[in-house]
Amino acid sequence: MTAVEAFDAVDVIRAKRDGGAVAEPALRWMVDAYTRGYVADSQMAAFAMAVLLNGMTRDEIRVMTDAMIASGERMSFAGLGKPTVDKHSTGGVGDKITLPLAPLVASFGVAVPQLSGRGLGHTGGTLDKLESIPGWRAALSNDEMFAQLRDMGAVICAAGSGLAPADKKLYALRDVTGTVEAIPLIASSIMSKKIAEGTDALVLDVKFGSGAFMQDVDRARELARTMVALGTDSGVSTTALLTDMNTPLGLAIGNANEVRESVEVLAGGGPADVVELTVALAREMLALAGQPDADVEAALQDGRAMDAWRAMIIAQDGDPDAALPAPNETHTVTATEDGFVTGMEALPFGIAAWRLGAGRARAQDPVLHAAGIDLHVKPGDQVAAGQPLFTLLGEDDSRFDRALEALDGAWTIGPDAPERTPLVLERITA
Ligand code: URA
C-alpha cells in the first residue's frame, strides 16, 4: 500500500502563486517529496517561478534551507578540537582567492574545510585551478578530510554528492526554467551546502558587477543580507563582504596562471587587489574564529602561509615544486594610443578565457589548464602606444579569434586616470 502524502503540491504552488507564505510543514514536505520524486519537475518548476515572482519570508527561507540540509548528510567537525571557518564566494573572473586564503587562515591554527566546485561558464572553479598542479587530487573521503583538517588545518576538496541532494536536483531544474535568479532560492541553495558541511563560521564574498553572478549591487546586497541572516539563524556565525567584480581580480585569468599568482601572494608579493581581498577575508574569518587581532600580513611575509600551502598540496598528492602547464601559443594585444587604462570589463575577459579553453561549456567537458589570459595592466595604469595590455594563452592558436571577438570593446584607454572605486564596498553582519 502506498503511504498517504501529507500535502498536495498544487496547494503549495497556489499558496505561493497567490503571494502567501507556505506553512513550515507544507514547505518541508514539498522539498522532501520533490527529492523522493513524488513531486514532479513541472510542479517544482511552477513553485520556483512563484518564488521568483513573489519572494519568500525570512522564515520560509530558513525552512527551505533546513529542508534541503535534511535531504542529505550533515558533516561535523566537532571532534577536531579547533574552530572551523569557511569562505564562500559567489564567483567571478580571476577569483583565485580561496587558494592563498585557506592556507593563510590555517596558519593561525584554525581549520578551513573548503568544499569547492568546478567551473561552468565564464567563472572558474577552484578545483580546476588546483588540478593544474601535477598529482593534486580533489576527491577525498570524509576520513581523509578530517585527518587533513586536524593535521594541516586547510583542505580544499570536491564536495561529496551526499550534501544537500535536494539542492542538486532543484538547482539543475532552476537552470532550465529561468528561475536561477530568485534570491530566496540562491540563498537557500548556497547556505544549505555550507551549513550541511558543518562549519562553525562562514565568511561570504558576495560579488557585484559585470563579471559577477549578481550584476546589480542592490540585489547583491539583498542576497548577502539574506545569507547572513540564514547562517545566523542556523547557528553559523556569518558575515559577508560586498566586493567589486567589474574588473577581473588580479592579473591572471585561467587555471595554471591563477595558481602561479596565488603562490606569489603566499610568497609575500602578488597583485595589490588579490592581496587586499585575501587579507580582508582572512581578517573576517579569523575574527569569527576568535582571533580579531591576528597579523595576517605578517603570515604572508614570513612564510607561515606558504608552509601551510605546501603542506596542504602535498597532503593531496600534489607536487608544489613541479612546473605548471605552460601554453604552446600566445598572442599579445598592445595599446593603440597613449593614455590611462580607464576600464577592463570582467565579463568579456571571463568569456574570452573560457573560449580559450580555461572553462567548460558542459559539466562533462575537460578544461585546458594552461589556457587563459595574463593581464599586463589594470585600470588606472598609464600606458604608451605599443605597450602590451594582455596576452592570450592557448594550447594552439585556433581559439584566439573567438576570444578576441569576445574582447571587442572590453577595455578602454582615455586621457585621464579613472576614479578609484573601492574593492570592498561594504561589510554585512547579522
Ligand atoms: N550557486 C549555488 O550554489 N546555488 C545557486 O542557486 C546559485 C549559485
UniProtKB/TrEMBL annotation:
Occurrences of domain Pyrimidine nucleoside phosphorylase C-terminal (ranges): 340-414
Gene3D superfamilies (alphabetical): Nucleoside phosphorylase/phosphoribosyltransferase catalytic domain, Pyrimidine nucleoside phosphorylase-like, C-terminal domain, Transferase, Pyrimidine Nucleoside Phosphorylase, Chain C
NCBIfam families per UniProt: PRK05820.1 (NF004490), Y_phosphoryl (TIGR02644)
Any one GO molecular-function label of the UniProt entry: thymidine phosphorylase activity
Family under the similarity heading: Belongs to the thymidine/pyrimidine-nucleoside phosphorylase family.
PANTHER family assigned to the protein according to its UniProt record, in alphabetical order: THYMIDINE PHOSPHORYLASE
UniProt xrefs under InterPro entries: Glycosyl_Trfase_fam3, Glycosyl_Trfase_fam3_N_dom, Glycosyl_Trfase_fam3_N_dom_sf, Nuc_phospho_transferase, PYNP-like_C_sf, PYNP_C, Pyrmidine_PPas_bac/euk, Pyrmidine_PPase_CS
Species: Microbacterium ureisolvens
EC number: 2.4.2.4
Quaternary structure, from the entry: Homodimer.
Pfam family, one: PYNP_C
Protein name: Thymidine phosphorylase
Keywords: Glycosyltransferase, Transferase
